[in-house]
Amino acid sequence: MGNTKYTYAVARIRALEVALFSDAVIEQLLSCKTAAEALQFVVEKGWGDMADQDDPDVVLRREEEKTWEVIKEVAPDASVFNVLSYPKLYHNLKAAIKEVCTEARNPNIFYDDCPIPGEEMLRIVENREFSRLPSHMGNVAQEALETLLHTRDGQLCDIMIDKAALEAIRKAGKESGEPIIENYADTMVAIADIKIAVRSRKTGKSADFMRSAMAECDGVNVEQLIRAALAGEDEIAQYLEGTAYAKGAQALRESASAFERWCDNRMIEMLKPQKYEAFSVGPLLGYLIARETEIKTVRIILTGKQNGFSDEAIRERIREMYV
Amino acid sequence: MNIAENLGIVYALLGAAVAVLFAGAGSAIGVGIAGQAAAGVVTEDPSKFAKVLIIQLLPGTQGLYGLLVGFITLSKIGILGGGALDVSVSSGLLILAACLPIGIVGLLSGIAQGKTAASSIGIVAKKPEQFGKAMLFPAMVETYAILALLISFLAVNGIQI
Hints:
Chain A is mostly helical. Chain A has 16 helices and no strands. The longest helix of chain A is centred in the middle third of the chain and has 25 residues. Chain A is globular, with a radius of gyration of 20 Å. Chain A starts with 6 loop residues before the first helix and ends in a 6-residue tail after the last helix. Chain B is mostly helical. In chain B, helix 1 runs antiparallel to helix 2 and helix 2 packs antiparallel against helix 4.
C-alpha cells in the first residue's frame, strides 16, 4: 500500500482543478476590452486577496503564493518539488552576487518565495558563508563571485550559475525517485539547452561558450546541438526533428515567441495524462505547472492589453491550458 | 477443556476468526484509503460531503460479509447458543476451509475497492453530476466479494456436524 500516500493530496488537487481556467475562460478574458476589465474578470473568479485588487502584480503574485501554500500543505514530502524551486533559488544567487560586486541595492530583484529569500542570500554572499548554501550551490557561488570580482564579466558569471542550476535540476529530478519529476526535470534542461543553442547562434557565440553554458541531459545531445548551432538556425531545427522535440523545430522556424509558447505547451502536454492519476505525485506537479502557465497566460493578456497589443498578437502568445 | 481433545472446535473457531479478521482488515484499509481521498475533496468543497461519504463506505461491505460468515459459523458449532457442540477434527477443518474464501477475497477486494473508490472520489470532485457512474466502478469490485461470500455461506451451511 506504499503508493497510497498521495491519496489525500491528489483528491484535494482534483477538487482544485475545477477552478483552473479552461481555454474557453481564456477566450472570455481575451475578449475583455481593457486591461482593467480583464483584471476585474480574474478577480471575480477569486484571484488575489481582498486588498490591492487593482494592482495586477499583487494579484498575480498572490496567486503564485496560494499555489505553493496548497502544495506545501498537501504534499507528504515537499522535497520532490525542489526541482521547481531551483530556478528561483539560483536567480537569487545570481542577483546577490551582482549586488555584492556592484555594491548597488535593488530589493525588487529577488524572489522571496523560495528556500533562501533575497535578504538572506545577500547576507550569505556578502559574508562569504557559502557553507550555509545547499551543497549543490556552495562551490559555484564561490567560483562565480570570484570570477565576477576578477574579470567583471557579468555574462560569464551568469552562465556559470545557470549551468549549475540546470545540473542541479537534473540531479534533483533523478534523486526524486518519481519518474514524472525526472522526466520534467530532463525536459526543462533539454529546452534550456535548445534555447541556448538558438540564442548563441543569433549572437554568433563559439562552441566553447555553448559548451560552458549547456548541461548534459537525456533529451538532446549537447555536442550534436552545438555542431548544429554552429552550422545555422536551420540546422538546429533539422537536428531537433530527429529528437523528441521534433515539433519544436517547426515552432523555431516560425518565430521566437512561437518557440517559447511551444516549450510551455509541451510541458502541459506531457503533464496532461496526470489528470487521470489517483495515487502518485504526478497530479500535484501537473497542478503546479498548470497554475504557473495559467498565471503566465493571464499576465501576457493583461500586459498585452495594457500596452495596446492587438488581440491577434496576444493570441499568438497564449499557452495551452491544462484542463 | 482439553484443547488436544477438542481440536475440531478450535479449527472451526479459527475459521470464524479468519472470516472476520481478514475481511474486516480489508474493509478497514479500503475505507481508510477512500476516506483520505474523501477528506481531500471535502477540504476544498464541503458541499460534496454526502456524495463522497457514500463512495467511501462502499469498501466497508467486506467486513459485514466476514461478520455474517463468522456469525453463522459460531451458531453452527453451538457457541452462540451457549453449549458448544462436539465437533470432529475433520468437520472443524472443513469449516476452516469454508471460511477461507470470504477471508482472503474480502481482504484483497477491500483494498482494491478502496483504491477504486478513491479514484471515483476524484470523479465526484471534478464532475459531481457523474456521481452514478462514479459509484459503479467500485461496485464492480464488490461482485467478487459477493461471490466469495456465497461460497463461504453455502459451504459452512452444508457441512454436517
